[in-house]
Amino acid sequence: MTRPLRVLVVDDDALVRAGLTMMLDGARGIAVVGEAADGDQVPTAVDAHAPDVVLMDLRMPRVDGITATRRLRRRVRPPEVVVLTTFDTDENILYALRAGASGFLLKDTPPEQIVTAVRQVAAGEPILSPRVTRRLMDRVAGQADAYVRARDVLSALSPRETDVVAALARGGNNAEIAAELRMTVATVKAHVSHILTKLDLDNRTQIAMLAYEGGLA
């Protein structure tokens, strides 16, 4: 007999984990092999249980789901990741997909659709909830104008600042950016501060979104 699909459930809410586990364990051909309560527990749980699919929450106290997904997908032969969240902002959707998630579902998705999503991503077929698909379509519709505007704004940056923006948009923290660009963490922080001031932005998320719109990531 073909072995069941192995699923790891990652969510900081114990009730959510219990509900997902009960639902998936009751589906034919699927077995929940482990749970994790935070993104920093994912590597150990994956090593211990070798899941085919990870159901990943986004908002967790120590390591968020996007960071955990990005780190997981850097592994050799990583499991597929389906993000399951209550937060469907454009930023979350794009960050999750760019981090390597194969699916993005909302927590109000009917149980049978979550089960179907697990099977589909395990078979190599990406899955998005209809509401998420609609948001992405709306975003693409305005992408051309956004690209021109973003490139005009980004043209104010020096080449080195542009490198920092691109690395930040790929999800790197200060230490990771410093290692990638061969500079100190203090220098990265200084560059980010100058970029915020120069572009009249408030935070790193706005920098990353501008980079996405301008094709830097």
Poorly predicted regions? none
Strand content: 5-15%
What's the total helix number?
A: 11
Provide mean pLDDT, rounded: 87
C-alpha geometry:
elongated
Q: Please identify the oligomeric state.
A: single chain
* Helix-strand pattern: EHEHEHEHEHEHHHHHH
Work out the helicity level. 40-55%
Number of strands: 6
Structural class: alpha/beta
Order of strands across the biggest sheet? 2-1-3-4-5-6
Model description:
The protein contains eleven helices and six strands. The chain is an alpha/beta fold and 217 residues long. It has a six-stranded parallel sheet, with helices on both faces.
Helix-strand layout with pairing:
Layout: E1 5-10, H1 14-25, E2 30-36, H2 42-49, E3 53-56, H3 65-73, E4 80-85, H4 90-99, E5 103-106, H5 111-122, E6 127-128, H6 130-141, H7 143-154, H8 159-169, H9 174-181, H10 185-199, H11 204-213
Parallel strand pairs: 1-2, 1-3, 3-4, 4-5, 5-6
Helix pairs in contact: 3-4, 8-9, 8-11, 9-10
